[in-house]
Design goal:
The chain contains seven helices and no strands. With 179 residues, it is mainly alpha-helical. The longest helix has 36 residues, at 139-174. It is globular and about 60 Å long.
């Protein structure tokens, strides 16, 4: 039961962090940058089936708080979790060093893909004054975002891995006294 409450607190923490901090840190993105990062990190640490029990409530909570209704970001997050799981099983890279950098690139590419798709579907009927080029961050902002994104990805990955190890220890300590 404690594990359930710990996971709920972690979901609330990630949602609060996205809404109150990362939306302000990355104002030029319409994509929830930190949530995409969290979806990739949770999928890497837990695997696809278990990551869904974390990803879906997290994205629905953020959609409910920010928009009031579920948006298609929840569906995008499920596909992203599946794609990350597929890549991690097929590439057989360790989650250290170069492998972790590759997964950070996948997460950042997913943010850019979400930005492109969102810009295309939402702003396609505004007219010629607002083009897709004006919606995308330009070179230096993109580089600055990635330089900021990479250490946040690494910290989040190791923090989530530490949390999962702690939860496993809690589960094992629960049955230690049973003979």
């Amino acid at each position: 039961m404690n594990v359930f409450f710990y996971r709920i607190i972690l979901i609330l923490f990630f949602a609060l962090l996205q809404i109150s901090f990362f939306d302000i840190l990355f104002p030029w993105f319409r994509a929830p940058v930190y949530l995409v990062l969290v979806v990739v990190v949770v999928t890497l640490t837990r695997g696809f089936p278990q990551a869904l029990f974390f990803t879906v409530p997290l994205t629905l909570l953020v959609d409910a708080v920010t928009l009031g209704i579920p948006s298609w970001f929840s569906l995008y997050a499920v596909f992203l979790a599946y794609g990350t799981s597929f890549l991690s099983r097929r590439l057989l890279l360790t989650h250290q060093g170069f492998g972790l950098l590759l997964y950070a690139l996948v997460a950042f590419g997913s943010v850019l893909f979400y930005q492109a798709v969102f810009s295309f579907f939402v702003y396609q009927d505004i007219g010629p004054s607002l083009s897709l080029q004006s919606l995308w961050p330009r070179g230096t902002m993109l580089l600055l975002t990635f330089v900021t994104f990479l250490p946040i990805f690494v910290i989040s990955y190791f923090g989530m891995r530490h949390f999962e190890e702690y939860v496993k220890r809690l589960g094992q300590e629960q049955f230690r006294g049973i003979r």
